[in-house]
Amino acid sequence: MVNSSFFARVSEGDCIGCDLCEERCPMDAISMDDVARVNLDRCIGCGVCAVVCPTEAIKLFRKDKDRQFVPEKDLFTATMAIHQQRRET
Ligand code: SF4
Ligand code: SF4
User: What CA–CA distance (Å, rounded) separates 5 from 65?
Assistant: First the structure.
């Protein structure tokens, strides 16, 4: 039910493994190894992780054009579009 045109990605060389992004992610999309890892199947591109990262290791990037989210004109149309998209993936 949540979609955006962005996703989070970690620059492994800049990550210090502080765990702040994992604690703040509302989708449980981040797990910790030596560095943070983003599960793109759960990431909604909200950007909360990027705001708290002390080294700017995790940032948002725009999805490829064919994966970008264009808002629908009303809630019903939006709900149907998301449902259709999930059926296709
Ligand atoms: S963009 Fe949002 S959902 Fe994605 S990893 Fe960061 S905090 Fe989690
Ligand atoms: S907040 Fe930044 S430095 Fe800390 S674990 Fe996440 S990506 Fe790495």
Answer: 9
